[in-house]
Amino acid sequence: MRFYKIKALIKLGLEDLTKNMSVFVYVLLPIVFALLYSNIDTLPKSFTFSICMLMNIAMLPVSLMGTIVAEEKEKHTLRTLMLNDVKASEILFAKASICVLFVIIDDLIIFFFTGLPMEQFAIYQLIGLFVAVAVILFGAFVGLFAKNQMSAGLLSMPFMVLFLAPMFTMMVDNKVFSTITDYIPTAAMMNLFDCVALGSFDFSSVIKPFAVIAAWLVISIIMFNIAYKKVGVDN
């Protein structure tokens, strides 16, 4: 990949996003909830952070990545770029980089809104980024199959519901459902956050959540490769 072209694509992608303000709903929603929850004194800071990060990772990468890839396909700009000596991998890497950028920005804002100790800053951000990478690839999968932005929104909904499942386990006291959701990457992320908050971040505590996230990362890569070979970014 040629990084000077990726840099230009990222700049172009950010400029295009400013013309489509609807996508910023996904960016702003977790921040709004972080602001609201942080003013509720009865909620522990670590709990507020975990819930807002769950919303951020479950919604933003899939929705944003799916929407911006579908938008480019809808406008037929992907084919134009590829005819001008831009590789498909460079286009997708640039789009993913934009999503990662917004995920990191949201992560930072949520962290500072909730007022967690600075010594926990790095580990929280790394965990969130690790999960976001896996989820972003599901967004690319959605974008490749979507015909337009509207269909991208519909296709991304099942993934968002799946990744938001840990929030539903808090509302439904069901041991079977809770056990199943433990194998969802966002639930594994929240388990890791709990380990950090409780100061029990040791090998025995984190090996299972990290294994779950790594497995989902592999699944997302496989699904993306299947979609890419079947559909092709220029179709």
Describe the structure.
The protein is mainly alpha-helical. The protein has one domain (3-230). 80% of the residues lie in helices and 0% in strands. The protein contains eleven helices and no strands. It has helices at 3-17, 24-38, 45-75, 77-83, 88-114, 121-145, 149-163, 165-169, 175-181, 185-198, 203-230. Helix 1 crosses helix 5 (88-114). The chain is globular and about 55 Å long. 39% of the residues are buried. The mean pLDDT is 84.
Largest sheet: none
Number of structurally distinct domains? 1
> Which structural category do the helix and sheet elements fall into?
mainly alpha
Order of helices and strands: HHHHHHHHHHH
How far apart lie the N and C ends?
Answer: 21 Å
Shape: globular
Mean pLDDT across residues: 84
Distinct helical segment count: 11
Question: How large a portion of the residues is in β-strands, by DSSP E?
Answer: under 5%
Rg from alpha-carbon coordinates = 18 Å
